[in-house]
Design a protein that fits this description.
Belongs to the glycosyltransferase 1 family. Bacterial/plant glycogen synthase subfamily. This protein is α/β, with parallel strands linked by helices and 482 residues long. The chain is built from 19 helices and 18 strands. It has 2 domains: 265 residues, Glycogen Phosphorylase B (Rossmann fold); 187 residues, Glycogen Phosphorylase B (Rossmann fold), CATH 3.40.50.
């Protein structure tokens, strides 16, 4: 019997994306289908989402959803079965999903994503004629309040699962918003939505969930410690019997070097020579010198979490070793400025593009020799999985999902043909310098380097195994609720 799943998230690829969350939410439904799980995904009706809907059907209207008119629309887009919350007062805005053009968060984010969660709970209660989910799976703080609305409402018997994509983002607001949320008085408390005197959306979801998942096994263990628990380690340790680490995968149809229409020349592990055309196209796109020096790439948010300040300190070292760097990303303005200054200082050896460009990110994976990911913490990471898929060897810190997915090129692993990248620890300048030096030295041995590329490209980075784990977890929750 097919299981009906309601997935709730603030973004979904290919309609709206700021990071890996969108890729996961967009790829998981197709991966779950062979497991007997039919997914409908509820997302906000941002302008970019509504523009892609085409012919949509209105399933429900709200005269006053947190004081505003809204509707739930249904549509099929690129194989995704979507439910879209069309609420112009909340989502018809210029800028990103969470903030304006200047980068500042919207002051009413608490209301925007409470509305999304309230509608998800209504759907779980049977609010759509002819369809009701067997289980509800919500992603990150923007959707986490769904679990609290369900727990304290008529849908309390429907199993609910919360996935943490990044514990650093928690959705914390002042206590003054609680009366407007429409939750009963008993929801205010340490066992409800209250969090250090305010309202915590993610905290409310975690304490109200029947199961909690993270996006890698190592991250599931890391967040139990004060270092990575971000103030929630006590709660998480108290619910450790409900905690599961399930590794993210990637959409191997979209990220497939043998069929990718976004790269200069398609290739496979058996035809690595064809990668050279992508390298030359990448060098040209970034204005880098065309030579055989190791070409490193970075595709990242430019933040402290991602270790980009450590990377700034390593740039002169990288160039001194003979390497080159192409960077694509945006984030903290001082870091953006520092990368641009380094590009000006090392013209032809370092180039930086501030912003995000999906087609360019594919070319960078297809043409780069190695992708640098020196994160201080990384729940899963997807760029290293794309790197493995394209033979762009990951150079990663030994944290979270990076530790779970990359096999270090130590002597034994290289000899056994198992190495798929370079793993270093701790996340500090000295270790990063050493990792870059190891990559440059390995790159000189073309036979060994290509063997590592082929091993990386053979790695299973699909959703196959993880989707099976999610489906098994859903079924265990349904059995528990029966």
């Amino acid at each position: 019997m097919t299981m009906k799943l309601l997935s709730v998230a603030s973004e979904i690829y290919p309609l709206i994306k700021t990071g890996g969350l969108a890729d996961v939410v967009g790829a998981l439904p197709a991966a779950l289908a062979p497991q007997g799980v039919a997914t409908r995904t509820l997302v906000p009706g941002y302008p970019s989402v509504l523009a892609r809907l085409g012919k949509a059907k209105t399933l429900r209207r709200y005269d006053a959803l947190f004081g505003e008119a809204a509707a739930v629309l249904a549509a099929q887009v690129e194989g995704l079965d979507l439910l879209v919350l069309d609420a112009p007062a909340f989502f018809a805005r210029e800028g990103g999903p969470y903030g304006g053009p200047g980068g500042t968060d919207w002051s009413d984010n608490w209301r925007r994503f409470a509305a999304l969660s309230r509608v998800a709970a209504d759907i779980a209660e049977g609010g759509l004629k002819g369809w009701r989910p067997d289980i509800v799976h919500v992603h990150d703080w923007q959707a986490a309040l769904t679990a609290a609305y369900m727990r304290f409402g008529p849908a309390h018997a429907v199993p609910r699962l919360v996935t943490i994509h990044n514990l650093a983002f928690q959705g914390r607001f002042g206590a003054d918003i609680f009366p407007a949320l429409g939750l009963p008085p008993e929801a205010w408390g340490v066992d409800g939505v209250e969090y250090y005197g305010g309202v915590g959306y993610l905290k409310a979801g975690l304490v109200s969930a029947d199961a909690i998942t993270t996006v890698s096994p190592t991250y599931a263990q890391e967040i139990r410690s004060p270092v990575h628990g971000m103030g929630l380690d006590g709660l998480i340790n108290g619910r450790v019997d409900r905690l599961h680490g399930i590794l993210n995968g990637v959409d191997t149809d979209i990220w497939n070097p043998a069929e990718d229409p976004l790269i200069a020349r398609r290739f496979s592990g058996r035809a690595l020579g064809a990668r050279a055309a992508n390298r030359r196209a990448l060098e040209k796109a970034f204005g880098l010198d065309q030579d055989d020096a190791p070409l490193f790439v970075i595709v990242s948010r430019l933040t402290w979490q991602k270790g980009m300040d450590l990377m700034i300190e390593a740039l002169d070292h990288l160039v001194g070793l003979g390497g080159k760097l192409a960077l694509l990303g945006s984030g903290d303005h001082p870091l953006e400025g520092a990368f641009l200054a380094a590009a000006d200082r090392h013209r032809g050896r370092i180039a930086a593009r501030i912003g995000y460009d999906e087609p360019l990110s594919h070319l960078m994976q297809a043409g780069g020799d190695a992708i640098l990911i020196p994160s201080r913490f990384e729940p899963c990471g997807l760029t290293q999985l794309y790197g493995l898929r394209y033979g762009c060897l990951p150079v990663v810190a030994r944290v979270g999902g990076l530790a779970d997915t990359v096999i270090d090129a130590n002597e034994a692993a290289v000899s056994a043909g198992a190495a798929t990248g370079i793993v270093f620890a701790p996340s500090d300048p000295l270790a990063l310098h050493g990792a870059i030096g190891r990559a440059v030295a390995l790159h000189r041995d073309r036979t060994a380097w290509q063997a590592m590329q082929r091993a990386a490209m053979r790695a299973d980075v699909s959703w196959r195994q993880s989707a099976a784990r999610y489906a098994a977890l859903y079924r265990s929750l349904l059995a528990e609720a029966a």
